[in-house]
């Protein structure tokens, strides 16, 4: 198993480290345009192997020939946002980068599975899908695993219980319009609606929706520990063919009444990528929120098309 990670910045390097520490793949290739950066980070991680006890070979490179024959590729190349920016402000800059790295990568790895992380996530996943020409089950975006991890963290902190016993579901685009679903959040099977008052749940939902922005405000750039761990969890589900049910940005073709876009939905993840989109029952209000979120993603795709048409 060979995993390529494009972008050796904060998120990319963290994905590499999390994947290495799981000791589950033969080789990790870290790619960046900056010379020396992926090589240095890869060597540093390789030198940590005797301490952590993994046998994964980690190489850093600026040359796509080193990525040939990859099974999985995680795309983290692109700018992160700064305070005051929305993820959508990265649209044009990151679309150029995601298109360029996808083009270069797929030539040598035509059978790989792509996991996009770059923002704005749902539109960048669409860009990678269109550029790669891959079937949709082999292209997905990472957001829901991160957003539900935040949701679960805040629930566990509020209730004073272990995060391990908190399960949660969240759908929609990776932005302010994401749709946390408290009805489907449980502590060891007990719905949180039985454990917390409405106002507390609403506060947790709001904090989750703006969880990325909370960190940007604190640090001046965006998060990487939880995003890196989240992408590595998706890599693990694919490598081990474990059929995890995780929220991912997947291509919808009629599911939830949505078509021709990537958006966060629960999927079964295995060796073939997105093996199934699971359709859970939504009430009227949840359906409306999901539709509004999909509208936002659609607008992102249209905005990008307009910007690129104007730029020629
Ligand atoms: N989907 C999600 O939930 C999350 C998405 N993100 C997004 O991930 C992206 C990366 O974030 P960070 O790692 O914090 O940024 P960073 O600035 O630390 O790293 C980005 C890296 O991409 C590299 N890069 C730029 N153009 C490239 C190209 N053409 N080819 C190869 N490498 C290239 C840069 O040299 C840099 O090392 C951002 O767009 C950010 O918004 C970040 C956190 C969570
Ligand atoms: O907030 C950002 O820009 C990065 C991101 O997507 C997240 O941490 O959720």
Automatic annotation (TrEMBL):
<dbReference type="Pfam" id="PF00056">
    <property type="entry name" value="Ldh_1_N"/>
</dbReference>
<dbReference type="InterPro" id="IPR036291">
    <property type="entry name" value="NAD(P)-bd_dom_sf"/>
</dbReference>
<dbReference type="GO" id="GO:0004459">
    <property type="term" value="F:L-lactate dehydrogenase (NAD+) activity"/>
</dbReference>
<feature type="binding site">
    <location>
        <begin position="7"/>
        <end position="12"/>
    </location>
    <ligand>
        <name>NAD(+)</name>
    </ligand>
</feature>
<dbReference type="InterPro" id="IPR001557">
    <property type="entry name" value="L-lactate/malate_DH"/>
</dbReference>
<dbReference type="InterPro" id="IPR001236">
    <property type="entry name" value="Lactate/malate_DH_N"/>
</dbReference>
<feature type="binding site">
    <location>
        <position position="32"/>
    </location>
    <ligand>
        <name>NAD(+)</name>
    </ligand>
</feature>
<feature type="active site" description="Proton acceptor">
    <location>
        <position position="174"/>
    </location>
</feature>
<comment type="similarity">
    <text>Belongs to the LDH/MDH superfamily. MDH type 3 family.</text>
</comment>
<feature type="domain" description="Lactate/malate dehydrogenase N-terminal">
    <location>
        <begin position="1"/>
        <end position="141"/>
    </location>
</feature>
<comment type="function">
    <text>Catalyzes the reversible oxidation of malate to oxaloacetate.</text>
</comment>
<feature type="binding site">
    <location>
        <position position="87"/>
    </location>
    <ligand>
        <name>substrate</name>
    </ligand>
</feature>
<protein>
    <recommendedName>
        <fullName>Malate dehydrogenase</fullName>
        <ecNumber>1.1.1.37</ecNumber>
    </recommendedName>
</protein>
<keyword id="KW-0560">Oxidoreductase</keyword>
<dbReference type="Pfam" id="PF02866">
    <property type="entry name" value="Ldh_1_C"/>
</dbReference>
<feature type="binding site">
    <location>
        <begin position="117"/>
        <end position="119"/>
    </location>
    <ligand>
        <name>NAD(+)</name>
    </ligand>
</feature>
<dbReference type="InterPro" id="IPR011275">
    <property type="entry name" value="Malate_DH_type3"/>
</dbReference>
<dbReference type="GO" id="GO:0006099">
    <property type="term" value="P:tricarboxylic acid cycle"/>
</dbReference>
<feature type="binding site">
    <location>
        <position position="119"/>
    </location>
    <ligand>
        <name>substrate</name>
    </ligand>
</feature>
<feature type="binding site">
    <location>
        <position position="81"/>
    </location>
    <ligand>
        <name>substrate</name>
    </ligand>
</feature>
<feature type="binding site">
    <location>
        <position position="94"/>
    </location>
    <ligand>
        <name>NAD(+)</name>
    </ligand>
</feature>
<dbReference type="InterPro" id="IPR015955">
    <property type="entry name" value="Lactate_DH/Glyco_Ohase_4_C"/>
</dbReference>
<keyword id="KW-0816">Tricarboxylic acid cycle</keyword>
<feature type="domain" description="Lactate/malate dehydrogenase C-terminal">
    <location>
        <begin position="146"/>
        <end position="305"/>
    </location>
</feature>
<keyword id="KW-0520">NAD</keyword>
<dbReference type="GO" id="GO:0006089">
    <property type="term" value="P:lactate metabolic process"/>
</dbReference>
<dbReference type="GO" id="GO:0030060">
    <property type="term" value="F:L-malate dehydrogenase (NAD+) activity"/>
</dbReference>
<feature type="binding site">
    <location>
        <position position="150"/>
    </location>
    <ligand>
        <name>substrate</name>
    </ligand>
</feature>
<dbReference type="InterPro" id="IPR022383">
    <property type="entry name" value="Lactate/malate_DH_C"/>
</dbReference>
């Amino acid at each position: 198993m060979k995993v390529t990670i494009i972008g050796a910045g904060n998120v990319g390097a963290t994905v590499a480290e999390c994947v290495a520490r799981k000791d589950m793949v033969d080789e990790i290739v870290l790619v960046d345009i900056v010379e020396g950066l992926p090589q240095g980070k890869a060597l540093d991680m390789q030198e940590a192997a005797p301490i952590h006890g993994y046998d994964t070979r980690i190489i850093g490179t600026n040359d796509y020939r080193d990525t040939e024959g990859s099974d999985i590729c995680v795309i983290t190349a692109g700018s992160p946002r700064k305070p005051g920016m929305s993820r959508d402000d990265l649209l044009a800059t990151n679309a150029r980068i995601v298109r360029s790295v996808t083009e270069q990568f797929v030539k040598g790895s035509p059978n790989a599975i792509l996991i996009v992380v770059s923002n704005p996530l749902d539109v960048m996943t669409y860009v990678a899908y269109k550029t790669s020409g891959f079937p949709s089950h082999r292209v997905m975006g990472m957001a829901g695993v991160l957003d539900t991890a935040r949701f679960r963290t805040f629930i566990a902190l509020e209730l004073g219980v272990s995060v391990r016993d908190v399960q949660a579901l969240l759908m929609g685009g990776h932005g302010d319009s994401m749709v946390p679903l408290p009805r489907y959040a449980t502590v060891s099977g007990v719905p949180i609606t039985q454990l917390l008052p409405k106002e507390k749940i609403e506060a947790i939902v709001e904090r989750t929706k703006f969880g990325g922005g909370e960190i940007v405000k604190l640090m001046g750039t965006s998060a990487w520990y939880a995003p890196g761990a989240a992408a590595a969890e998706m890599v693990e589900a694919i490598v081990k063919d474990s059929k995890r049910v995780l929220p991912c940005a997947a291509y919808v073709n009629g599911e939830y009444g949505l078509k021709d876009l990537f958006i966060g939905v629960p999927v079964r993840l295995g060796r073939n990528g997105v093996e199934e989109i699971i359709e859970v029952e939504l009430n009227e209000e949840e359906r409306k929120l999901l539709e509004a979120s999909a509208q936002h993603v659609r607008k992102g795709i249209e905005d990008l098309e307009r910007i690129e048409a104007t730029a020629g």
